[in-house]
Amino acid sequence: MPFDGVLLPSRILLTAKEAYTSPSVKQLLVAGAVTLTCQSEKGRPICGLATRAALLWKEFDQRFFSIPDPALREHTLHTARDEIKRRLNRDSARPWFAVDATGHNIELENLTYRQVLRRLVALTFLSRERWGGKAPIFTIPIFHAASPEISTLDSSFGQALGAAADKPLHPENILRLLQFFRLPKQKPVSLIPRLDEYFETWFKKDPFWQAEDVDAVMNLDAQRTFILLGPVLNRFIRGRDW
């Protein structure tokens, strides 16, 4: 049967005018940089532009995720926990979740219900006044009392819970929150709640969509995204919005 041509998809189209790639990510691609190889969540090699996020990924592969013994890996993570939290907050699209009112990294057990609510808002309510991902925070059972309107979210939550809003999370609620974060049929949360046996999954699962939606990234920082790109294609990117 006659045909006029063949359409071949390619990652080189990342910088095309029609591409969904965020403008700041396109700029990184056009500026040119080295690429590197990391291990995906499934243990397979993936290539990406050497952003701060990709460099962090490769470093974590070498230092933590390559440790086969679960007990030794857990011990190593625990030993380096302060550095890991700091690096996540600086370089990753998935920052450390438990941060107190003064900006210090803590654990879930030290957060109050109101602090959890405010942190979730800070990480999921985007710059264009929309919720990121597919699971707005008011769908979390613990926060059913909160209004979905951002302007009244905090006050409605405080009125519903009263003094309990400023109490530390109950252990059962911590478990429920972590279970909600790990629901299998929803988009992975853009945060790291624990340095536990699921840390590699928290860190790696579905990590590429932020390159098409930098609004969902802290400080709109494209360097926090993992941009899929191999060394060959990297050589042929010459411009953007062509």
Describe this structure in words.
It catalyses: acetyl-CoA + n malonyl-CoA + 2n NADPH + 4n H(+) = a long-chain-acyl-CoA + n CoA + n CO2 + 2n NADP(+). By secondary structure, this protein is mainly alpha-helical. The protein folds into two domains: 1-93 and 196-242, no CATH class; 97-191, Transcription Elongation Factor S-II, Chain A. The chain has helices at residues 23-31, 52-65, 70-79, 81-91, 113-124, 153-161, 171-181, 199-204, 231-236, and strands at residues 35-39, 45-49. The longest helix has 14 residues, at 52-65.
In short:
This is fatty-acyl-CoA synthase system. With 242 residues, the chain is mainly α. It has two domains: 1-93 and 196-242, no CATH class; 97-191, Transcription Elongation Factor S-II, Chain A, CATH 1.20.930.
What does the largest sheet look like?
Answer: 2 strands, antiparallel
Number of helices: 9
Q: Mean pLDDT, rounded to whole units? A: 84
Computed Rg = 20 Å
Distance between the termini: 32 Å
Features:
36% helix, 2 domains, Transcription Elongation Factor S-II, Chain A, two-stranded antiparallel sheet, mainly alpha, single chain, 242 residues
Please outline the helices and strands.
Layout: H1 23-31, E1 35-39, E2 45-49, H2 52-65, H3 70-79, H4 81-91, H5 113-124, H6 153-161, H7 171-181, H8 199-204, H9 231-236
Antiparallel strand pairs: 1-2
Keywords: Multifunctional enzyme, Transferase
EC number: 2.3.1.86
GO molecular function: enoyl-[acyl-carrier-protein] reductase (NADH) activity; fatty-acyl-CoA synthase activity
